[in-house]
Write a structure and sequence with these properties.
Jelly Rolls, Arc Repressor Mutant, subunit A, 3 domains, 5-stranded mixed sheet, 4-stranded antiparallel sheet, 10 helices, 11 strands, 41% helix
Length: 298
């Protein structure tokens, strides 16, 4: 199962609750799981690690049979749009006897610690949830929809995008279900000149989004939350939006100055592929890359 992919699987379910491949220093990840063929099998227990799998159900799942630490949860229907928590320290297992479609977001303990430190709060302990029981949470559903849209648009490898959304999800989970109480702080200003320069250098050198937000913040001597707020105050946009603008500028330069195929332009400027370039370019510029090239090269 690759990070950010739409996984289509049949009966090989050994990695349903396994952590997806690494995403950045904090090992956060998101993956859309689509299993069209029921297996009638119980998933084997994943490695026990200190992490939470947040599951946003995307299709109804009737009569779910589920275990944590070998203890069976009540058999329940899980409706599309409901959320479940899977504590990976407790060996979650599930009978997959029908098609399965869900978004899995992997949040390790380190991510919750970052959120707590940024909020000047005590790190959380165990979460308050009932194993195998789905519940409604509009905030998680909204963030999940944004993550899902990003995955489907090819933004899975855009580290600032992934970090921003998953850390926001971790902050909500910690506050709502872990009892974390943030201490409000006033934003005292934007980035210092050297911090703004360093942030631009790192982001510009990683137009593919490969620089994790936590690493850019560390290079500036700030927590992730403080960096994000200060960056927006300095530039008027988020780090992800800044990256998109730089990609478009780089793409325009190449399209205007040479006859490089658009597929190569896309990869050179940090887009996932030509389709991704076309979607973003058309949305922001008002014309497709091909049409814009014809216009500027006349």
């Amino acid at each position: 199962m690759t990070v950010g992919s739409v996984a289509e699987k049949g009966s090989d379910l050994a990695d349903l609750f396994a952590a997806p491949a690494r995403v950045g220093k904090l090992k956060m990840a998101a993956v859309e799981i689509r299993l069209p063929e029921p297996s009638l099998d119980v998933t084997p227990p994943p490695p026990r690690i200190d992490a939470l799998m947040v599951r946003l159900q995307l299709g109804d799942y009737r009569g779910q049979r589920y275990w944590e630490d070998g203890v069976a949860a009540p058999t329940r229907d899980i409706a599309a749009g409901e959320v479940l928590f899977h504590d990976l320290r407790r060996g979650p297992r599930l009978v997959l006897d029908q098609p399965y479609h869900a978004l899995h977001v992997h949040i390790p303990r380190a991510a919750f610690d970052v959120v707590a430190a940024d909020s000047h709060a005590v790190p959380i302990g165990d979460l308050d949830y009932a194993p195998g029981v789905g519940f409604e949470d509009p905030t998680i559903a909204g963030l999940g929809a944004s993550i899902l849209a990003g995955l489907r648009m090819g933004l899975a490898q855009n580290q600032p995008f992934v970090d921003h959304l998953i850390l926001a999800l971790a902050a909500h989970v910690a506050a709502r279900y872990g009892g974390m109480t943030a201490k409000p702080r006033a934003v005292r200003g934007g980035l210092a000149p050297w911090q703004a320069r360093r942030a631009r250098e790192i982001l510009a050198a990683n137009l593919d989004g490969g620089a994790p937000l936590v690493e850019v913040a560390r290079q500036c001597g700030l927590s992730v939350g403080h960096f994000s707020r200060s960056f927006r105050q300095s530039f008027g946009i988020t780090p992800h939006q800044w990256l998109v603008q730089r990609r478009l500028e780089a793409a325009k330069d190449l399209i205007r100055s040479c006859r490089m195929p658009l597929s190569n332009v896309a990869l050179s400027c940090g887009f996932a592929d030509q389709s991704h370039l076309t979607r973003v370019f058309t949305r922001e510029v008002g014309a497709s890359p091909a049409a814009w090239r014809r216009e500027v090269q006349q």
